[in-house]
Amino acid sequence: MTRLIALLLSCLLAPGPVLAGAWLREQNKAFTALSVTGFREEDGAIAYKTSLYAEWGMRPNLTLGLDAEEHRDLYGHALIFARVPVADLEDAGRFAAEFGIGAHHRQRQAWAMYKATLSWGKGFQTRSGGGWMAVDASLEYRTHEAVIRKLDFTAGLSSPRRIDPLLQIETSYVPGRPFYWSARPSIMYRPKDGPNTWLVGLEKNSFKESVGLRLSLWRDF
């Protein structure tokens, strides 16, 4: 059941940048992204995780969304969130705030979780086309577990080409535990016709020795 929720329930798409963060979804527009990442374990087995991200522009100043992730039915989370604008500094970028509530689980046990995020984003121009960068700082309170401090960075291009690069770096810290980091360089491929974008990339994180392969499908509505 948990696996089904994760597959039905993981990237963002905003005017200009592909990943939102500080940008809100246009009213009555929606976006979904389904991802799967696989890692080869020392014994030859494949460890995988799936994720689903979805968001919908309810109003010009309010975006609602869902963020879910599952690790082989062993542990995961599902979070419903709301994003609102904070400030638009024009050339200096823009800020948005996000508030979420949901649940996290370990096998059959589940507990509540809450998350608050402050995001900054800025578009830029290069010789290869337009691009964007975003920084997300968040506090994630997982009841019966810990308060997690997160700082994430995303940068990529959004040019008229069919192929563009994307880089995502995620970090998290819990006092008394090892610092966690994850780096995901990827290539985005946009077919000539249709609302889909395919993403193929690698993932290296501080928890695993192997490098993972990541595949995502993004879709606009």
Report on the architecture of this protein.
This protein has a twelve-stranded antiparallel barrel with strand order 1-2-3-4-5-6-7-8-9-10-11-12. The protein has one helix at 2-8; strands spanning 30-40, 46-59, 62-71, 75-88, 94-106, 109-126, 129-142, 146-157, 163-173, 180-189, 196-205, 212-220. A hairpin with a 6-residue loop joins strand 11 and strand 12 (212-220). The chain is mainly beta and 221 residues long. It has a single domain (2-220), classed as Porin (Beta Barrel), CATH 2.40.160.40. The longest helix has 7 residues, at 2-8. It is 3% helix and 66% strand. The model is unreliable at 1-18 (pLDDT under 50). It starts with a helix and ends with a strand.
Q: Secondary-structure map with pairings?
A:
Layout (H helix, E strand, L loop, with lengths): L1 H7 L21 E11 L5 E14 L2 E10 L3 E14 L5 E13 L2 E18 L2 E14 L3 E12 L5 E11 L6 E10 L6 E10 L6 E9 L1
Antiparallel strand pairs: 1-2, 1-12, 2-3, 3-4, 4-5, 5-6, 6-7, 7-8, 8-9, 9-10, 10-11, 11-12
